[in-house]
Amino acid sequence: MKIGIIGSGSMGQALGKFFALAGHDILLGSRTPQRVNEWIATEGLTARSGSYAEATQFGDLVLLVTRWAETPAAIQAAGSLAGKILVDCSNPSGADGFYHVGDGRMISGAEEIAQWASGAKVVLAFNSIYGSMLLAGTQFGDDNPSAFYCGDDENAKAVVAQLLQAAGLDPVDAGALKNARYLEPLAGLMAHLGENMGWGGENIAYKLLRRRRD
Amino acid sequence: MKIGIIGSGSMGQALGKFFALAGHDILLGSRTPQRVNEWIATEGLTARSGSYAEATQFGDLVLLVTRWAETPAAIQAAGSLAGKILVDCSNPSGADGFYHVGDGRMISGAEEIAQWASGAKVVLAFNSIYGSMLLAGTQFGDDNPSAFYCGDDENAKAVVAQLLQAAGLDPVDAGALKNARYLEPLAGLMAHLGENMGWGGENIAYKLLRRRRD
């Protein structure tokens, strides 16, 4: 699959490397594509870099992996996203670093992104998954991590679910895009456990245990 | 262990039944203890009911399982909680039923409870676990659910962690009580998946996958 990535920070690079190694065609969009090209060469990846607009035009699927404060400008720079599957992998950050507490937020970041990215088929995914965990391998003994996703376009969701599954993850449908309000706060706990509680992000992931439905 | 329970709604009853069947001494505090006694008899449990104050005096450990709107009055009715281990099993509910989005909340419910319950050793636990799941059994194939907890008193946390472990759960320490801000939003997703996404609460639980730390 041709995957364009908007944002070349640590998570953008991790997703780019992860999907490049999995055999996808990657264009890693950056504000500093030359520096990203050096990183690609150092890593020995089959991938290339370009502008946000080039990443958008390139991708059958576009991953949005920007810091919240930079997201409106990044979407602006991306050009038309109409008709594109836009996978929001980001999170709005709250006051004091506590996601969704104390920031006065009334809707999810994913819903705001859908407003900004006119005509895009927005699916939230990867927002509570560490890139370093993906690169360290998706197996935890006999378990693999769950990957929650939500969105309003069923065809786009099916494409994303297939991508998650092929990546060794366990897709969990959380319904419509507005349910990003439930999914985004998961990132706060994940970051807290990884960075404050001594686990290291590469060593932890969520699993939704399920058993036979009655 | 002598466990007092403040609140006899569906979660209070589920925890009472779960811990009574596990051999603990239970006093289920209620505003309608007579009705709870009938339920105890119907269930054939070794347990008893009483007022919130009686549950508080009885318990070496007190579970708080009330609806958010009723919590201040319940704590008032409970009498002195000074020195008690108070396990907050509740969640503040937000506007539109979306926890922690759109409710203008600046701190966690658990921190507010610690302010209201003067001198209590507050530990948040069980807030994103379905009572019906506990009663249906804590095994999911070879997995068991994680139980996140946090609090400011290390001895109280150790008691709660032991209780969680003995109950067949996998305790995960999330640090200080303020980190309830990360844990309470988990309940929103759990309720959404159980009630809106067709799983049924008894069939789902979170697991935090971990692997060897480097």
Spell out the key features of this protein.
Rossmann fold, homodimer, eight-stranded mixed β-sheet, about 210 residues
Structure description:
The structure is a homodimer of 214-residue chains. Chain A contains eight helices and nine strands. Chain A is 38% helix and 20% strand. Chain A is α/β, with parallel strands linked by helices and 214 residues long. The interface between A and B is large, with 48 and 48 residues. Strand 9 of chain A pairs antiparallel with strand 9 of chain B, so a sheet runs across the interface.
In short:
2 copies of one chain form a homodimer. Chain A is built from 8 helices and 9 strands.
